[in-house]
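Possible regression after last week's pipeline update?

I re-ran a chain I had predicted before the update to compare outputs. Posting the input and the new output here so someone can diff against the archived version. Not blocking, just want to make sure nothing changed silently.
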Amino acid sequence: MFIVDEILVGEEIATERFSCDLARCKGACCTLEGGRGAPLLDDEKDLIEKYLPVIRKRLDGRNLDVIRERGVADGYPGNYATTCINDRDCVFVTREAGVARCAIEKSYLAGEIPWRKPVSCHLFPLRFTEGSAPALRYEVIGECDAGRRRGTDEEILLHGFVKESLVRRFGAAWYTKLELACAERAALVENGRPTGQPTGRKARKEG
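New output (post-update):
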């Protein structure tokens, strides 16, 4: 791993290719088995509840029944996640032609609400964990094989694919430093030099 302004970054983020292929994966990341939905920041739970009167118009009866019974999120402050249906579908999944779509994002794209969706969803397939050693990692799952193939075929770098969400979460200045660090790591790999173990090296802070 390498460090960008106190955040550990997985090596794969510098070099892997990726681009979601919804036509093939069918939105699998929204329906993964496990019983826990998308991780939420505390204020994101509040935003979902605020905009629920709009979002609910895109949900079917099953989803609305679950929300009435269990609410929009499971967990507790600092550890919320969206509610799941039968330990799989996020409660905000709506299907179109067999593809799982996000009712929150659809409401945003339609100009009905000003908030896009949980940042953890926006970042995927990257995962960010906070704490004493904040870390950004690439989560590899079989359901995203099509995204890896498409990214390779179209030569789309993983960190470039998720640029919008990284800027949203960490800011434009941080993303610029990430780009520079990724270019350095990629050059080392291309030249056949090992990238090494986690180091204390970090991009120079501005100001």
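Follow-up from reviewer: compared with the archived run. Residues 197-207 have pLDDT under 50 and may be disordered. Marking as no regression found.
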